[in-house]
Every structure is written in structure tokens, then in C-alpha cells.
Design goal:
CATH class: Alpha Beta
Number of domains: 1
Shape: globular
CATH superfamily: Pyruvate-ferredoxin oxidoreductase, PFOR, domain III
Distance between the termini: 27 Å
CATH architecture: 3-Layer(aba) Sandwich
Structural class: alpha/beta
Largest sheet: 6 strands, mixed
CATH topology: Pyruvate-ferredoxin Oxidoreductase, domain 3
Order of helices and strands: EHEEEHEHHEHHHH
Length: 191
């Protein structure tokens, strides 16, 4: 059986680091892992999507619509764009933060209202104020690792395995802050 996790956010939110931590964790469990990264205008706040597929043997890194066990979303609008990738019994984990895309900033469009409520009606959705928890850990840039902590509660892997993957992947000078962010996400209860 293959597991499928889609990670979505915008440039600068740590989507790629998150996929590396997750990949490190899964490899440490003896699983075959395939990653695929799709970059939009990531340097300018555009969409960044990472597919993480794992199992005994994985042949393709791409997740098709309706196949994701989890969508890990670091921003509301990106979550709304990705919700169609969830399988029927999948789980959407979404940071409640709104990051306005360029058309909203310039006034050409409005940021859609009611996204979280709409997604909650459509699928199992865990809404997390990950920005507040990240700031509590020491930096708004830790939103991604807070969300990994929330994801870890949903998955079967040990906390020690997750912590070791973070220690292996995150640079030493940011390690304590990221470990705290992970712990805060792990403790968070959205249900």
C-alpha cells in the first residue's frame, strides 16, 4: 500500500524543507520514498507544491486528484486549491493564515471569504493557527514544522523518529526553535 501526502504553500514557507524532513523520516522507516516538487513563482510568493509518496515500492512521484491521504497546507487559499487531491477519507490539515497573492495585493481581485468553512463541509479538515504557535516557538518561519507536528499526530510513526528526522535535516542554528515548533504542533488539538 502506498501513502500519499501533498504539501502546499507559497514561496518562503518552507514547503521544500518540510518534504525533506518527511522524506528523511520515511526513509528511516525502511520505506521507498518518491518526492516531486512543483515550483510556481516561489521566489515571489507563488504556489509551491510537493508530492511525497511512500510505501514498500513506489513507482511514480506524482499524486493524482483524489489520491492524497493528507494535504498539508501552509495557507488557506493554497489549501482550497489542493482540496480536490484528497481521497474520500483523507484529511486536510490547514494553517489558518492568509497570505495575499499579487492579484489581491494590487486590488485586481479579492481574497475569497469563507474558505475554511467551505473546506470543512467538503472533507475532514483540521484548522490550525500555526502562525501563533510558530511565533511562540521563536519565528513565524516555523509554521511548516508546527504543521508537521500536527501531521505527526495523524500518522503511525514514533515521536523519536520524527525528532531524529528534524535533527538530521534542519541546520543546527535553527534546530532548537524547530524542535519547539514541532512539539507545539504535536500537542495541538484541533478536534
Amino acid at each position: 500500500m502506498t501513502g500519499n501526502i501533498m504539501i502546499v504553500g507559497v514561496g518562503g514557507q518552507g514547503t521544500l524543507l518540510t518534504s525533506r524532513i518527511l522524506g528523511t523520516l520515511l526513509l528511516s522507516q525502511g520505506l521507498d520514498v518518491k518526492l516531486s516538487e512543483v515550483h510556481g513563482m516561489s521566489q515571489r510568493g507563488g504556489s509551491v507544491i510537493t508530492y511525497v509518496r511512500y510505501g514498500e515500492k513506489v513507482y511514480s512521484p506524482i499524486i493524482e486528484a483524489g489520491q492524497a491521504d493528507y494535504v498539508l497546507a501552509f495557507e488557506q487559499l493554497e489549501a482550497a486549491r489542493a482540496v480536490g487531491y484528497l481521497r474520500k477519507d483523507g484529511c486536510l490539515l490547514v494553517n489558518t493564515q492568509k497570505l495575499e497573492p499579487m492579484p489581491v495585493i494590487t486590488g485586481a481581485m479579492a481574497y475569497p471569504e469563507g474558505l475554511l468553512a467551505s473546506m470543512q463541509k467538503r472533507c475532514r479538515t483540521l484548522c490550525v493557527d500555526a502562525l501563533s504557535l510558530a511565533e511562540q516557538a521563536g519565528s513565524a518561519k516555523c509554521v511548516n514544522v508546527v504543521m508537521l507536528g500536527v501531521l505527526a499526530r495523524q500518522m503511525k510513526f514514533s515521536v523519536d523518529a520524527w525528532t531524529q528526522a528534524i535533527r538530521t535535516t534542519v541546520p543546527e542554528k535553527f534546530l532548537a526553535m524547530n524542535e519547539k515548533a514541532f512539539a507545539l504542533g504535536l500537542q495541538y488539538s484541533a478536534e
